[in-house]
Amino acid sequence: MGDEVKVFGFWGSPFSRRVELALLLKGVPYEYVEEDIFVVENKSPLLLQYNPVHKKVPVLLHNGKPIAESLVILEYIEETWKANPILPEDPYDKAMARFWAKFLDDKCLPAIRKAAFSPENEREEAAEEARACLKTLESALNGKRVMQEVTGEELLSVEKLPELFKWTEEFVSCSVVKQSLPPKDKVLGVVKARVAQTNAPK
Amino acid sequence: MGDEVKVFGFWGSPFSRRVELALLLKGVPYEYVEEDIFVVENKSPLLLQYNPVHKKVPVLLHNGKPIAESLVILEYIEETWKANPILPEDPYDKAMARFWAKFLDDKCLPAIRKAAFSPENEREEAAEEARACLKTLESALNGKRVMQEVTGEELLSVEKLPELFKWTEEFVSCSVVKQSLPPKDKVLGVVKARVAQTNAPK
């Protein structure tokens, strides 16, 4: 087909990692372009051109056409490359997968981020919110274990959430997933720095 | 097929209206169940059972199986009833439609709601945000004209946003859309009451 596929991403972003993971699962070769998302001025002119609305990674570029928003990109990948389906075939099961993906992005990830990056005195309350989300979640999250290591707030444990724990254990031991995970110590470094900043005297 | 289709909705919710609109467009007969969403205790046990995560309308019940989240429901309707496609056929066009639907829900609607329901002294700033969203939007919004009538903040005008204005004019003059729009004076009453409440002395 001579497809030209590029991903504009950031090494530590679960959103760009999920796009890469989908392409890996489908066996679609792609070129990866790393973006410096921490400093606005460092974002490449191409990223701003391809995602002028949100100015964020990930962006998938397919034969010159850009798509933004990771869940939108996943749907596009699923429809464009049929091998190794990501979503279940049955429309109802598919709806459930979409519902949980949306729940993860809209509710869980913001709650977990808040639990990790709240000032110390607000952290327990935020962690409680995050725990409630995780209790509801029947799907999996990526990157949270690093956060609990840093903040000391245990969000995910085999005792409290056995099914979710098992799911993530299986998820991260899959060889394709392993390939797309960012190095743990690098993630840990960034998260620790951010937590320290949150708690620094103003 | 003997399909049993029910929609749990609220007359003034654009989210449940879009589900009804999709069913109308597809020609799928359904039973409508009105929920009182203003008072938590008035929500029906069925709604809580069918959408335990968000406890919100709309819920689509298809042959006893519940689906929540309006955009997830629309995808399900599109896949289940093939007549009169809602989404474009081309995968890239489809991705664009999904991108703008997500933008509408995640950015525009919250900004417009904020512009309508901010206390008077914060309203201009909130309206500015909403205007920026609408400028970006290439799709359409429903219900905003009522809000600008109440608050006096003009968000959508033929001079400032000619394409969007034209789109919404066409949208609301479509016969199926007309059928699914809530009565304007009823919407106006609810919005006015809420604006008054926002500005009432604490």
TrEMBL record, chains A, B:
<comment type="function">
    <text>Is involved in the conjugation of reduced glutathione to a wide number of exogenous and endogenous hydrophobic electrophiles.</text>
</comment>
<keyword id="KW-0216">Detoxification</keyword>
<keyword id="KW-0808">Transferase</keyword>
<keyword id="KW-0963">Cytoplasm</keyword>
<dbReference type="Pfam" id="PF02798">
    <property type="entry name" value="GST_N"/>
</dbReference>
<comment type="similarity">
    <text>Belongs to the GST superfamily. Tau family.</text>
</comment>
<dbReference type="InterPro" id="IPR045074">
    <property type="entry name" value="GST_C_Tau"/>
</dbReference>
<feature type="domain" description="GST N-terminal">
    <location>
        <begin position="3"/>
        <end position="85"/>
    </location>
</feature>
<dbReference type="InterPro" id="IPR036282">
    <property type="entry name" value="Glutathione-S-Trfase_C_sf"/>
</dbReference>
<dbReference type="InterPro" id="IPR040079">
    <property type="entry name" value="Glutathione_S-Trfase"/>
</dbReference>
<dbReference type="InterPro" id="IPR004045">
    <property type="entry name" value="Glutathione_S-Trfase_N"/>
</dbReference>
<dbReference type="InterPro" id="IPR045073">
    <property type="entry name" value="Omega/Tau-like"/>
</dbReference>
<dbReference type="InterPro" id="IPR036249">
    <property type="entry name" value="Thioredoxin-like_sf"/>
</dbReference>
<protein>
    <recommendedName>
        <fullName>Glutathione S-transferase</fullName>
        <ecNumber>2.5.1.18</ecNumber>
    </recommendedName>
</protein>
